[in-house]
Amino acid sequence: MDLTDEQLWARYGRNGQGALGDRMGVRILEASPQRVVGSMPVEGNTQPYGLLHGGASCVLAESLGSAGAGLHAGEGRMAMGIELNATHHRPATEGTVTGVATPVHLGRTLATYAIEITDEAGRLVCTARLTCMLRDA
Has 83 been annotated as catalytic? Predict the structure, then answer.
C-alpha cells in the first residue's frame, strides 16, 4: 500500500519518523512496502572526530526499514524492530546521506529489510539489515 505524504506524516510523525527522526533531520522521500527512501544530514549527527556517528546511520536504517515494515503490516498492525545489524564501510563528514530500504522477506509475522546508505557521491557508507516483528496494534 503506497501512502500519500499526508497519510505517511499522520502515521509516522512530522517528518515520517517521530521525535528521534525529527531531531536527527531524517526525511522520508518515498515510502511503500517495496521501497523506502530517506535522507539525513551529516551535520549534527557526528561523533567527536567529525565523522557521521555509526549510531546515526543505525537510526536512519531502522527508521526506513521500520516504515516499510509498518506499511507492509497494514492498518491496525504495527512493526517493532527486533534485530538490527550494520556494517560501516566509509566515513561521511559533510552533506547528506541517503538510505534505501528494500525487503528481503515480507511475511505475516516478520519483515526483514536490507538498507544501503550512501553519501552524496553515491559511495556506500553503511549497509544494514533490520528485522521487525509484526503485531496487532
Answer: no
Q: Which of 62, 83, 94, 120 is catalytic?
A: 62
Structural domains in the chain (count): 1
Domain containing 96 equals: 5-136
Residue pair 117/97 in contact by the 8 Å Cβ criterion: yes
Largest CA-CA distance found in the chain, in angstroms, rounded: 43
**Which grid coordinates are listed for 10?**
499522520
Quick: pLDDT tens for 19-42. Answer: 888 899 999 999 999 999 999 999
The yes-or-no verdict on residue 77 having pLDDT over 80 is yes
CA dihedral angle for residue 104, residue 30, residue 127, residue 130, rounded to 10 degrees: -50
Give the C-alpha separation, 94 to 83, whole Å: 29
CATH code at 56? 3.10.129.10
